[in-house]
Amino acid sequence: MAEPMMTPPSTGFGRMQALDLFLCSLMNRANRREYVGRFFALFSRLGDGVFWYTLMLLLPLLHGRGAIVVTVHMALTGLAALLIYKWLKARTSRPRPFMVSDRIIRRVPPLDEYSFPSGHTLHAVAFSLVLLSHLPEWFWVVVPFSLLVAASRPILGLHYPSDVLAGALVGAMVAGLSIAAASPMLA
Questions:
Q1: DSSP track, 4-21
Q2: How far is 182 from 166, CA to CA, in rounded Å?
Q3: Rounded Cα distance, 121 and 144, in Å
Q4: Cβ(177)–Cβ(163) below 8 Å
Q5: CB atoms within 10 A of CB 13
Q6: Among 115, 114, 125, 120, which Cα is nearest to 168's?
Q7: Are the C-beta atoms of 76 and 174 separated by less than 8 Å?
Q8: Buried b or exposed e, range 49-73, using 16+ CB within 10 angstroms
């Protein structure tokens, strides 16, 4: 009796990669319009850290000295997120979409060589969750901002949608652990 044919493991993975590239290409089409590209390039640039570090410095001015704890908590979470991000980038070495396909138009230069995961999204989610655990009134500022930063990554041709999803998941895990670790100290 002949054994049933096994589908090569790379077939399913290859399909997922093709879907990821297709979705990235679809999102990247918006980048062809100058005003759309500039809009998302602005959010990408602010997501490089400009927005978050400015916000961390402003929190004590806006909420008093007690907000220094929030700023320190965000900064330490950002440091942990950076270390995990760099470790993941070095282990995966996934090429960026614009390097793989001529259909993908890159609007802005990348901060580093590799695509997986999206560090902008990872940090946006981690910073947002930590901030919201202390000051939930910031929801209407940081959640829309984080969503625009996340959307900017495939639109600008710098990341696949799966990079953004992975960045969001890792950012949420880092924030969750950070919040859990800080809770006894802040009680």
A1: PPPPPHHHHHHHHHHHHH
A2: 24
A3: 12
A4: no
A5: 10
A6: 125
A7: no
A8: bebbeebbeebeeebeeebeebbeb
Q: Which residues contact 13 (CB under 8 A, 6 or more apart)?
A: none
CA distance 143 to 131: 11
For the chain, how far is it from start to end, CA to CA, in angstroms? 67
Quote the tokens at residue 151: 């959307």
Express each pLDDT in 162-182 by its tens digit. 999 999 999 999 999 999 998
Q: Which among 182, 187, 176, 174 has a CA at the least distance from the CA of 87? A: 174
Segments making up each domain of the chain, as ranges:
34-186
Contact (Cβ atoms closer than 8 angstroms) between residue 41 and residue 108: yes
CA dihedral 110, 114, 117, 121 (to 10 degrees): -10
Side chain identity, residue 148: L
Whether the CB-CB separation of 155 and 30 falls below 8 Å is answered with yes
What is this structure's pTM?
0.89
Is 120 within 8 Å of 89 (Cβ atoms)? no
The number of angstroms, rounded, from the C-alpha of 92 to the middle of its chain's C-alpha atoms is 16
* 107 confidence band (pLDDT: 50, 70, 90): confident
Kindly state the average pLDDT of the residues 128-134: 97
Host H or E run for residue 53: helix 51-63
